[in-house]
Amino acid sequence: MKPLKMGNIEAKVPVIQGGMGIGISLGGLAGAVALEGGIGIISAAQIGFKEPDFDTDTKAANLRAIKKEYEKARKIAPEGVIGFNLMVAMRHYEEYVKAAIEAGADLIVSGAGLPTNLPEIAGDADVKLAPIVSTEKSAKVILKYWDKKYKRIPDLLVIEGPQAGGHLGFEREKLDVFGDFAVYAGEVKKILSVVREYEEKYGMMIPTALGGGIDTPQAARRAILLGVDAVQVATRFVTTKECDADIRYKESYIKASKEDIIIVKSPVGMPGRAINNEMIKRVERKEQILHSPCHRCLHRCDPAKIPYCITDALIYAAKGETDKGLLFCGANAYKAERIETVKEVLEDLKKML
């Protein structure tokens, strides 16, 4: 097991804790992962939901919370690697990226759309940039665009597979095609082939990480043997003491069966993976779930037409109101049996080699 190097930054343990919003991976979890040598990632998605002015001035609340949560994580892990996950689909994306950089982030991981203008937003700031891709096509697009427009390559490329949780970077029919690991392994190799082209062009290494369904040392080893340099793990960290979510959210993973893990459609039309519950059943019955005044979270959302508000649903989940919440999870969430510590999870994953 080799450390993950991104230029002048090195993580002793090549495990990136995936960003989970709203309120699941904040400063507490990210700091704990960074303290143990991994890379801790804070999700900036509606990060200010606990701020008193969140309903009246959402952007200001989020900008303030970005700084607060980073400082919380940095206090836990003064020397650790700490970054943010920022969705391209978020409104005010540019301002949130700049706020994360100003706070001191080591790394910006960005997906839910291709972060084509991320280098322009970051400018010459001393921060590592890591776009998320899921297919060979998306890898080609982002690498070609950054090369042509900015004359640069990513500091890290994160590959998220079909077994990941939350919003997924695949059309619904592609999830079935790539559901078999052997099939998606072929896609990963194609992505890595694209990466090699740009490594040769720039004479520099582009570190890669693979996420989605990685919850055991065996799964991590299988990923590393494909040729990536690190793994991204999210679901496994939910059922840790340090996870920022309410204990009832964590317990929903432990109680879930394999059959409870389903693919849902978010209000903005993107497929996602979640635990089946009363809220999802109401949506399937085509009930209109009343929601709070719009917090303007995602670009493609029309408050007048959505069956439910994803911000409301994810906040309910983070606060432990699990029947009213959207319980995003990875494909293997049902395997959780107990509450662990971050240290225990990383010690287990380190058995990969």
Distance between the termini: 6 Å
C-alpha Rg, in Å?
19 Å
Give helix and strand order, one letter per element, not per position. Answer: EEEHEHEHEHEHEEHHEHEHHEEHHEH
Low-confidence stretches: none
Per DSSP E runs of 2 or more residues, the count of β-strands stands at 14
Mean pLDDT equals 93
Share of residues in strands: 15-25%
The total count of helices amounts to 13
How is this structure best described in words?
The chain has an 8-stranded parallel β-sheet. The chain has 353 residues and is of the alpha/beta class. The model has no long low-confidence stretch (mean pLDDT 93). 38% of the residues lie in helices and 16% in strands.
Topology:
Blueprint: E1 4-6, E2 9-11, E3 15-17, H1 27-35, E4 39-43, H2 58-76, E5 81-87, H3 93-103, E6 107-111, H4 118-122, E7 128-133, H5 136-150, E8 157-160, E9 166-167, H6 172-177, H7 181-202, E10 208-211, H8 217-226, E11 230-233, H9 235-238, H10 247-255, E12 261-265, E13 271-275, H11 278-284, H12 310-318, E14 327-328, H13 342-349
Parallel strand pairs: 3-11, 4-5, 5-6, 6-7, 7-8, 8-10, 10-11
Antiparallel strand pairs: 1-2, 9-13, 12-13, 13-14
Helix pairs in contact: 1-2, 2-3, 5-7
Offer a concise description of the structure:
This protein is of the alpha/beta class. It has 13 helices and 14 strands. The model has no long low-confidence stretch (mean pLDDT 93).
Keyword list:
14 strands, 353 residues, single chain, four-stranded antiparallel β-sheet, 16% strand, globular, alpha/beta, eight-stranded parallel β-sheet
